Amino acid sequence: MKMTARGSIAALMTCMAAAGAATPAVAQSVPVGVPLDAVKTTLGVDTPRVGTGVPVPVAGAPEAPRFHKGNMLPTPLLPSVPLGTELGSTLVTSPVPNLLGKPETDGEGSVEAPATNLLARTPGLVAGGLLTMPDASNSGVPNLTAPELGLTAPELTGAPSALLGLTTPR
Asked: What share of the chain is helix, strand, coil (3-state, %, to 5)?
């Protein structure tokens, strides 16, 4: 094999490895099917079918601390961290026997929740020191102040929804 062919193959393999390594970071949820076939074969009853997505949380950049005039400590002292994920779509279907009182009217019930984005933000800590900035009127000695301590509220933002369905044969 020539050196140019080897170089081309090496470049191709490097690109494929980079694409494969980048794929898990893009995934917001991992689809999962719940296996219930063993229940059906063991008990001899129709079982529901369940398919869902497991969320993969992705941490964002924390909020940058800001310094304000007259304060020795930054605000917030402990920044809040955003976490984003996608709640995967979920579908649960189950057979409904004798829907209208007759065996030939067996139907199927379903609950479906479409995929939705969810954003959470951790609480942060805001603190004020016991001392002020150096005071020129007090010979450069800082003054005492009352301590300040507070938490920023955590946030959870999203709009999950669900659809309930029932089908009968025609």
From this structure: 20, 40, 35
Task: Transcribe 66-120 into DSSP letters.
Answer: B--TT-SS-BSSB---EEEEEE--EEEEEEESSTTSSGGG-EEEEEEE--EEEEE
Q: What tokens appear for 22 in the block?
A: 């980048």
* Site of tokens 């063991």: 42
Q: Map residue 2 onto helix, strand or coil.
A: coil
* Tokens linked to 47: 């079982």
CA atoms within 13 A on the CB side of 161: 4
Mean pLDDT of 39-43: 83
Question: In this structure, are residues 109 and 118 in contact, taking their beta carbons and an 8 Å threshold?
Answer: no
| Longest CA pairwise span in the chain (Å) | 95
The larger pLDDT score, comparing residue 104 to residue 17, is at 104
Nearest to 162 by CA among 118, 117, 113: 113
Distances 28 to 17, 41, 68, 158 between C-alpha atoms, Å = 20, 34, 37, 15
